[in-house]
Every structure is written in C-alpha cells, then in structure tokens.
Amino acid sequence: MGTTKSQGDVRPDWTAIGWMSLVWAGVLIAFLTYLGVPESLRSLRTPYERQPVFDPSRDPAVGAKPMLPTRDVLGRDLAAFVRGSDRVLLAVLGPCDSWSASQVNPASLRHGERDRVILVWLSSEETVRRKAERLPSQFCAIADPKGVLAVQLNAYWMPRYYLLDSSLRVVECQPRGVDLQEWGGWE
Hints:
By secondary structure, this protein is an alpha/beta fold. The chain contains seven helices and seven strands. It has two domains: 1-51, no CATH class; 56-173, Glutaredoxin (3-Layer(aba) Sandwich).
C-alpha cells in the first residue's frame, strides 16, 4: 500500500487500495456466481455436450387421444370433419414459413376420397388461416404457435406424421428414419 506525503502528513494511496479492492470483489463475485448457478445452466455454455435425443417412449400410446382443438382455424368442427373417414393423417409441419412445411405437397398426402388430413403448423392462427384457405376440402389446419401439441405428440422432427382413427385416437406414429412414402401406416 502506497502513501502520499503532503507537508509531512502520511495518508494512504486510495487509488491503489480501490483498484485492489475492485479486483478482489470481482474474483469473489465470479466465484459466488459460479457456485450459485445450477449445473443445468452452467452446461448451456457448451451446447454440444447435451444434445437432445429422440425418445420413442414419449410417443403417444396407441389409442391415446391427442389434445386437438375442437375446431380448425376456419371454424370447422374436427369431429364432423373426420366422421365417416377411412383414415386420418395428422401431420406436424413446423412453422408455415419453414423448410419442412414447404416440402409437403398436400396433394401427395391424401390417397382415397374418404381420407382426411389434419395439418398442424407452429405459427399464429392468422398465418395458418391464410394457408388453410387454399387447401382442398379433405384438409383442415390447426395453429399450434407455442408448440404444445407438437411436444405432446413428440414431434422431434418435422414433418412428422401420425395415423388416427375416425374418433381422433392414435393408431400409429411415424417411426424415426422412415419417411412418409416408406411408412406402411399411410401407404
């Protein structure tokens, strides 16, 4: 610690004391912050350490009824829409403007006259409504802007498909690594 002499007075050099105090305060704060941050947050600094892994046990069970809204974005009743259908394909496509959504041609999804397709987009209701107005009558669209339905369905990749019965219960989930053309559930 230095001193300053002024007419015989001995006073401490406050500049040196201030800088040293600031350095030690910084070290203490950094140490306490590190101790106080949970491991789950500390691991976010290295995102490649914890990659999400697909877990097929999170897929909806056969016979489960996903929490679909009662009406699509155009106001049509979903139960009436699928009544009498042979098969119902539920497709989680991602956001309307995403690459995965752009890769889906609606005409390629429907096979028979009595097949129905429910498209789920992770976009606002208004955005999905604009898309839905241009779809054929065998299609309906649902907005899932917060991804709640996508999480419930374990839509780990998009587009992901689910075969439903006419009561909107899960019959089969698209397996990982199998595209729609190879999947026996819809062919």
